[in-house]
Design a protein that fits this description.
Layout: H1 3-17, E1 23-24, H2 38-51, E2 57-60, E3 66-69, H3 76-88, E4 94-97, H4 111-123, H5 126-140, E5 143-150, E6 153-160, E7 164-166, E8 177-187, E9 190-203, E10 206-216, E11 223-226, E12 240-243, E13 252-254, H6 277-296, E14 301-303, H7 305-309, E15 311-312, E16 318-319, E17 329-331, E18 342-343, H8 350-367, E19 375-377, E20 382-384, H9 394-422, E21 443-446, H10 455-467, H11 473-481, H12 485-499, H13 505-511
Parallel strand pairs: 14-17
Antiparallel strand pairs: 1-11, 2-3, 4-21, 5-6, 5-13, 7-8, 8-9, 9-10, 10-11, 10-12, 14-18, 15-16, 19-20
Length: 514
């Protein structure tokens, strides 16, 4: 940023204090944003649980002094989010964009579109990244995806819940939104905080993206509106960009399944543990107390007051008899001289704590709609059930409910990618994509359901169906082994070739053969 621009920004700061220049305390103060600010306070609390970092615990040591110690959490918010994300999506996900051609029944009308989207997502390393961000979606209640092209190169941005601001409330869909991108810079001896607000709006049939940059000297304030060229990376960014011919926004918002019961008018989603935070706190508190009891050995020793008073050395320094970090020793209330020591130690209540934590884990399973027995605590760590989950289980139904939202969002993303590419001119002066735009119904997505089925039982079922004449060999290969039609036919042919009898010389002479 140049000296002149720096001077201008200083004048704007002064003007903002006097009310002459646009100044935002919070992003939600912007007149275009119509979401309740309390929603972002809720998201911030969920983020604290997801991080698993909480304030220190205050306690009094044996001398009655107030001390702090780290709070030890079990962080089940992270565990639940990761468990659900891994069940919804992995690298075995497949999709196709296809429609039978009117002139050739074997031709795919959208073959070019299918290839383009596959290449776009591959270059963006979508398969590796999406599961990670799905964890954030589950934990914080939403995730937006924003496709773009930078000098013709595909790019896919993941906007997490704290940075996504719908422009309207009381809607089930989010057609317009603001995306916040935060940057810090050191200017002189100060750390300056910049926030780029990228507004996505519809003006009639035109799609408009507006960029506004804000500058603040404090982290918790959005700040004063400044010129885009105040930051080097935004010097070529246009304040306004118009798009035509789009059927949907150039972002996709995905949220967990279920009604937002915290604010029924909000378009924002709920964290999967939003209604389980009390239980999460009980789990964390029990785990923290258990760890502290183990660390201290739950020792309690009664000593007379003279032992807790300490002694003064020749230089006047107070010498303590016991370690000041522990709270093992307690006063007996006896001021008499001599060693009046009584051991009040009780056994560590390991089983009580383990049973309590497992009880709270059962409550957490209910509140997050997961099957009973999904989580268990053995005194050292949480175990997640690895056995096959029935397709009729609560976990399977919950996963499918969330997955419906994910599937719809991914289909919309593919449409957005193609529409954006069709309106983007490449370095060769041509549109990046020139084919037809498919509809949602032309896109098929297949997710990996393998973890929900016992493959041995499934194979046994289909073999019995074949032996009973209810299924063909090809169907068994496809349904039980997950092969394509072409792969199944190849395997069947190999089996037939291997099982064909080998003719001897006499048989060959009589019946012919190669």
């Amino acid at each position: 940023m140049g000296i002149i621009q720096n001077i201008i920004n200083r004048f704007k700061q002064g003007g903002a204090r006097m009310g002459f220049v646009a100044n935002l305390n919070q992003i939600t103060d912007h007149p275009k944003i119509g979401v309740n600010p309390n929603e972002y306070k809720r998201i911030e609390i969920n983020r604290e649980y997801f991080r698993g970092i909480f304030p220190d615990v205050k306690y009094r040591n044996s001398y009655g002094e107030l001390l702090n110690r780290p709070y030890t959490s079990l962080n089940m918010a992270k565990v639940v989010s990761k468990t659900l994300a891994s069940m919804m999506f992995n690298e075995k996900m497949e999709f196709s964009i296809s429609k039978t051609s009117e002139t050739d029944e074997e031709a795919n009308q959208f073959e070019v579109a299918d290839k383009f989207v596959h290449e776009f997502l591959n270059q963006c390393k979508f398969m590796k990244s999406f599961e990670v961000y799905l964890e954030s979606m589950a934990a914080l209640g939403g995730l937006a995806l924003r496709p773009s092209f930078e000098n013709g190169k595909p790019s896919l941005s993941y906007i997490q819940a704290p940075s996504f601001y719908p422009l309207h409330s009381n809607t089930t869909d989010v057609p317009e939104a603001a995306i916040a991108i935060k940057t810090t810079r050191t200017e002189g001896n100060e750390i300056i905080y910049y926030t780029l607000l990228e507004f996505h709006e519809w003006v009639g049939e035109q799609y408009v993206i507006t960029n506004e940059l804000y500058r603040s000297e404090t982290k918790d304030e959005c700040g004063v509106k400044v010129a885009l060229n105040s930051l080097e990376e935004y010097k070529d960014l246009q304040p306004t960009t118009l798009f035509t011919g789009l059927s949907r926004p150039q972002f996709v918002y995905i949220k967990p399944f279920g009604m937002n019961n915290k604010d029924i008018d909000s378009p924002l989603g709920l964290s999967i543990y939003d209604n389980a935070r009390n239980t999460l706190k009980q789990i964390n508190d029990a785990y923290d107390q258990f760890n502290w009891e183990v660390k201290m050995g739950q020792r309690r020793v009664s000593v007379n007051d003279s032992m807790l008073e300490g002694k003064t050395d020749l230089e006047g320094n107070l010498l303590r008899v016991f370690d000041t970090d522990q709270n093992v020793y307690v006063s007996s209330g006896d001021d008499a001289d001599g060693a009046n020591i009584k051991d009040l130690t009780t056994p560590i209540r390991a089983n009580d704590y383990i049973n309590s934590i497992n009880h709270f884990l059962k409550m957490l399973e209910v509140e997050t709609s997961l099957s009973a027995g999904t989580f268990s605590f053995d005194g050292q760590s949480v175990k997640t059930a690895t056995e096959i989950v029935s397709e009729n289980s609560l976990t399977f139904r919950t996963r499918n409910s969330h997955l419906n939202n994910v599937e719809q969002g991914l289909k919309e993303l593919m449409i957005s990618i193609l529409e954006l590419a069709k309106g983007t001119i490449g370095i060769d002066g041509k549109e990046l994509y020139t084919g037809e735009i498919p509809s949602i119904d032309d896109i098929t997505i297949s997710f990996d359901d393998g973890i929900f089925f016992d493959k041995n039982a499934q194979l046994d079922y289909w073999l019995k169906a074949k032996s009973g004449g209810a299924a063909s060999a090809e169907m068994v290969m496809q349904r039980a082994l997950g092969l394509t039609e072409e792969q199944a036919n190849e395997v069947i042919q190999q089996i037939q070739d291997e099982s064909a009898p080998t003719l001897g010389a006499l048989d060959t002479g009589m019946y012919g053969g190669n």
